[in-house]
Design goal:
Blueprint (H helix, E strand, L loop, with lengths): L1 H26 L12 H6 L9 H16 L7 H27 L7 H19 L5 H21 L5 H20 L2 H21 L8 H18 L6 H4 L1 H23 L12 H7 L4 H26 L2
Helix pairs in contact: 1-3, 1-8, 3-8, 4-5, 4-9, 5-6, 6-9, 6-11, 7-8, 7-9, 7-13
Length: about 325
């Protein structure tokens, strides 16, 4: 019963603050700055939509969690501390990135190197808590997961509702995993995120009234990555975060193919029409809603497969 209540409270909370926050963001002219090298259709269809909308689900999520902790309904374990800390740091990192973009009216915010440095510092703190005699390789592994998850979920946020739907599925996979591994505090947190994200989806679905912004995408990536680390289930990300991984791989492959072809062949050869991957499908003629729905279905299949494997292993 408590699980259902947490989900519903988070859902109602996010729905309740959605419109007031959207009005506030519009009033301060917090508009999304569309990157010029992206699909040309986005320059007209999405340019006036406000950003930093992830506050619609992040504020309820943190308030509900902190209320449970204060009323001693949720035990603040080291695992929960780690996930909340990572999520909060990534949220503030994304928030400052979004604010810089709004102020400069440009899609360039905090430098990539600074983001990686902060992700490295977060990874170092997690490593010191969970190293258990592990060597330097484990620090590299933690950094790979935290930075990889944060940046891959960030890259996935490019179409109305896409990242929100994919993230819901990722958290759903981890809910089952935490049930199986006996981590009730992380089950609560994942359910709270699912409820507030579902409320946010009401405003973020096509045509979106609000965009998530880096505030939300980096926070979600940080949450998912740290959840995988504290539960020692990093390999499940292959199935619980398949779409974000493919989005990130498409960018890596595109950059590698361009650099290699220019250097050794003297011409620019691209694997995809544009990256991240969802833009490639836009440019070959798929409608935005079709891409989002098909990516969602594919991610759902992967999460279902992950759950089946998880249940089979724990029989």
């Amino acid at each position: 019963m408590i699980y259902f209540l947490l989900f519903i409270i988070s859902l109602i909370f996010s729905l309740a603050i959605g419109n007031p926050l959207i009005k506030l963001l519009k009033s301060i002219n917090a508009k999304q700055t569309i990157r010029e090298e992206g699909p040309k259709s986005h320059l007209t269809s999405k340019a006036k939509t406000p950003t930093i909308g992830s506050l619609i689900f992040l504020i309820p999520s943190f308030i509900v969690v902190l209320s449970l902790i204060l009323y001693k309904k949720l035990i603040l374990t080291q695992d929960l501390k780690t996930v909340l800390f990572t999520t909060a740091i990534m949220m503030f990192l994304g928030f400052f990135d979004d604010i810089l973009k709004v102020l400069k009216k440009h899609n360039k915010g905090i430098s990539g190197w600074l983001k990686l440095l902060i992700q490295l510092l977060v990874s170092l703190i997690i490593y010191l808590k969970y190293k258990e005699g592990a060597g330097l390789f484990y620090l590299i592994w933690v950094f790979f997961i935290i930075s990889g998850a944060s940046n891959s979920y960030n890259l996935t946020d490019g179409l109305d509702g896409l990242l929100t739907k994919v993230s819901l599925l990722s958290f759903l996979g981890f809910i089952v995993l935490f049930f199986q591994t006996g981590k009730p505090e992380l089950v609560y947190l994942s359910l709270i995120f699912c409820g507030s994200l579902l409320g946010f989806l009401y405003f973020n679905k096509h045509p979106a009234k609000i965009f998530m912004g880096d505030t939300g995408s980096l926070a979600i990536g940080g949450a998912i990555g740290s959840m995988a680390i504290v539960s020692r289930s990093e390999l499940y990300l292959i199935l619980f975060a398949t779409i974000p991984i493919l989005e990130a791989l498409s960018v890596i492959l595109q950059v590698a193919s361009c650099q290699f072809s220019k250097r050794f062949l003297g011409k620019d050869i691209r694997i995809f029409k544009m990256t991240p991957l969802h833009h490639h499908f836009e440019l070959i003629g798929w409608k935005e809603t079709m891409i989002v729905n098909r990516f969602f279905i594919f991610q759902a299949i992967c999460v279902a497969l992950g759950i089946v494997i998880l249940l089979f292993i724990n029989i």
